[in-house]
Design brief:
The complex is a heterodimer of chains A (200) and B (192).
Chain A lengths: L3 H17 L6 E3 L1 H9 L5 E5 L3 H6 L6 E2 L2 H4 L9 E5 L6 H13 L4 E5 L2 H10 L2 E3 L4 H16 L5 E4 L16 H5 L5 H11 L3
Parallel strand pairs in A: 1-5, 2-3, 2-4, 4-5, 6-7
Helix pairs in contact in A: 6-9
Chain B lengths: L3 H4 L3 H22 L5 H5 L8 H22 L13 E2 H18 L3 H9 L3 H28 L3 E3 L3 H5 L3 H26 L1
Antiparallel strand pairs in B: 1-2
Helix pairs in contact in B: 2-6, 4-9, 5-7, 6-7
The chains are: A alpha/beta (200), B mainly alpha (192).
Chain lengths: 200, 192
């Protein structure tokens, strides 16, 4: 062991310890988990839509209130609320930090982001899809999603081509791959966009 | 803003050009660190040379702390970094199979390529075995698909599963790594 190693260990320990006190890291909630909270009437839930007002008026998550980051920074919280923020798709680092920092300054503690925004809500709750060759696990998840969809006024679709349902999509909290790529839209996002284009 | 590949800053050609450069650099550092030597690698299983543990855990902690803090200061968007999905049982079985192969062959996939590139016959043997394994998996992939896709947890992290913040997860893993380094040094000290 050289004299450098203890120094590096101290640096790592300092950075690791500082990370423990960093409270701006986002916590995500999946669309089905959010739907479940809405269905059971979670009184602590406060959902905020950060998209444009026109988009909000066209379609929004039940119980969601339209707002902006500026308005959020003026909204008081008691710390007991479960706050969920969403926008069109995923939050980039700047928007995420801006929104969550404002909330924390106003007293909010339990802050969740809907990972893939309104697109995840449409694809996983409002219009869940079941591929023609779905696995038993996918069918079980689809049944669960169908309950949400019925309750919240959506339409579940069966016998959908596999290409319209990404692999593993109904089996877990999987990110839509297109949200990461940014460039070419993947089949997953194409499928969701088709829903959107039909005026959902 | 990073990751450069996802934000399009590198472009498709840039990504293709960068990948082999990173691969060569990775191989070079492995070789210079002595990790192309099967005896050194298997030493960790007999607790007489814990270089692999220390090198790989150092890399893990460096990458984790770097990624976390770059994200924190807004230079990297961690949500754009690919997060592999978790399938508990298939990956547990795969890990066990990997470990058995590692002990028998003395090399893992990356280090076998390094050893082969350095002209070691055992490295070539392990690379050959790895290719046979890939072909065998491909041949039976349809048959084992139900198991392969079972026990899915999705793209989750240790922090997600534990219900703690990402920062707390980083702190815990850092603490485990530092404690591991201390224990490894003590073990090596008693055996030298």
């Amino acid at each position: 062991m050289t004299r450098l190693h203890p120094g590096l260990a101290v640096v790592a320990a300092a950075l690791g310890l500082a990370a423990a006190f960093d409270d701006t890291s986002p916590t995500y909630i999946s669309a089905p988990a959010l739907a479940e909270r809405i269905m059971r009437g979670d009184a602590t839930l406060r959902v905020f839509d950060l998209r444009s007002l026109a988009d909000y008026n066209e379609l929004h998550i039940p119980t969601a209130v339209h707002t902006t980051v500026d308005e959020l920074s003026r909204t008081p919280f008691t710390g007991t609320e479960t706050v969920v923020l969403y926008q069109l798709r995923s939050f980039d680092a700047g928007a995420r930090a801006s929104a969550t920092s404002s909330l924390r300054l106003k007293g909010a503690r339990r802050i969740y982001l809907l990972r893939e925004g309104i697109y995840e809500w449409i694809a996983r709750v409002r219009e869940p899809r079941l591929a023609t060759d779905a696995t038993p696990t996918e069918r079980a998840e689809f049944e669960r999603a169908t309950l949400f969809s019925r309750f919240l006024g959506g339409v579940a679709r069966t016998n959908v081509a596999r290409s319209e349902v990404p692999a593993g999509y109904w089996t877990a909290d999987v990110q839509l791959p297109a949200a990461r790529s940014g460039a070419a839209e993947s089949k997953a996002l194409q499928a969701v966009l088709q829903v959107r284009r039909r005026g959902c | 803003m990073m990751p450069l590949s996802e934000t399009g800053a590198l472009g498709a050609d840039g990504v293709l050009l960068t990948a082999p450069l990173i691969g060569f650099a990775f191989g070079w550092f492995l070789e210079r660190g002595g990790l192309g030597d099967a005896r050194k690698l298997t030493g960790q299983f007999y607790l007489n040379d814990l270089t692999v543990f220390k090198v790989l855990f150092s890399a893990l902690v460096t990458a984790m702390l770097g990624a976390f803090w770059l994200d924190r200061v807004g230079l990297l968007d961690l949500d754009l970094v690919y997060l592999p999905e978790t399938w508990v049982l298939p990956q547990a079985l795969g890990g066990a199979l990997f470990g058995v192969g590692f002990v028998i062959g003395g090399l893992c996939p990356g280090t076998s390529c390094v050893a082969a590139a350095a002209g070691r016959l055992d490295g070539l043997g392990v690379v050959g075995g790895m290719l046979i394994g890939v072909a065998s998996f491909n041949a039976v992939s349809g048959w084992i698909q139900p198991f392969y896709e079972s026990t899915s947890l999705g793209a989750v992290t240790f922090a997600d599963l534990a219900g703690i913040s990402r920062g707390m997860g980083v702190a815990i893993v850092t603490g485990i790594a530092l404690a591991g380094f201390a224990v490894a040094s003590r073990i090596e000290g008693t055996r030298s």
